[in-house]
Amino acid sequence: MEMETQDKRRGQSNEDLIGERTGELGCCGWFLVIISGLFALLTCPISIFMCLKIVQEYERAVIFRLGRITDKKAKGPGIFFVLPCTDTFVKVDMRTVSFDIPPQEILTKDSVTVSVDGVVYFRVSCPVSAVANVTNADFSTRLLAQTTLRNVLGTKNLAELLSDREGISHSMQSSLDEATDPWGIKVERVEIKDVKLPHQLQRAMAAEAEATREARAKVIAAEGEMNASRALKEASLVIAESPSALQLRYLQTLNTIAAEKNSTIIFPLPMDVMSHFMNRK
Q1: What are the residues whose beta carbons fall under 8 Å from the beta carbon of 26, sequence distance 6 or more?
Q2: Neighbour tally for 124: CB within 10 Å
Q3: Which has the higher per-residue pLDDT, 253 or 117?
Q4: Rounded to whole angstroms, how far apart are CA atoms 196 and 233?
Q5: d(CA 6, CA 110)
Q6: Is the pTM of this model over 0.70?
Q7: pLDDT tens across 234-250, in order?
């Protein structure tokens, strides 16, 4: 709802500016218009081919009558008529247009030089403003997108540039949309395509990431050793409380050794068995 009200306000402001520019033709102007209309009637049906014009569904026609915009709005789509001698018109494409922002060398807030490129999607929202307020709306929007990209990214740190691309895109879109509003241009979307870092900085960041991963691996290994030692301590306490459990552990070890097909088998005798023979002696 807020976007719709803003678009309506912008459309009304553009119409007010156009209304100030367009005015009455005057007596001389109306005289020439009447003469042109009579000439078209006298040369009919030959003049019909010069007066009848067609614009497509995605186009609008801005008609100039003796240098002034007629009706303060564009014509189309469909059929419309122009006078052969006093009227001229300009076709305006209303479809969404996309273009690439060339790679820009940008110095970030933390004094790092990066190369950034992007893509912009825009369309003509007011055909009359796009024709009357700017010489070439498409070319002007492209140049403005380059300067806006440098201005916005110049206020960001490298970490923000790498992690907050969506926020940067929204900031650029609002800045471009506000600047191109008098031209009748609506910027729909701005996207950051690629961020190229210097090779030295890439190696430094890779080394930092590798060191961070190694430190994390050492911490995980230390935690595993600590957990294993706790488990061994608990197991030793359980075995100490039950001598039969120790004997079963011996038998399991013997079974494991026998499965490996060794020629020599060392079988440890429990200390309680040896103590029995020593007592008899």
Answers
A1: none
A2: 23
A3: 117
A4: 54
A5: 36
A6: no
A7: 777 776 776 666 667 76
Give the three-class secondary structure for 256: helix
Q: Domains plus CATH for the chain?
A: 20-92 (no CATH), 97-197 (3.30.479.30)
Q: Which of 68, 61, 56 is nearest to 24 (CA)?
A: 68
Q: What is the rounded average pLDDT for all residues in the chain?
A: 78
- Helix ranges (DSSP H) in 22-157: 26-42, 48-51, 127-132, 137-153
Inter-axis angle of helices 165-180 and 137-153, nearest 10: 140
Roughly how many angstroms between the first and final C-alpha of the chain, as a whole number? Answer: 102
By C-alpha distance, which of 123, 243, 241, 139 is closest to 184?
Answer: 123
Long-range pairs, 31-39, Cβ under 8 A, ≥24: 32/66, 32/85, 32/86, 33/65, 33/66, 33/83, 33/86, 35/85, 36/83, 36/84, 36/85, 36/86, 36/87, 37/83, 39/84, 39/85
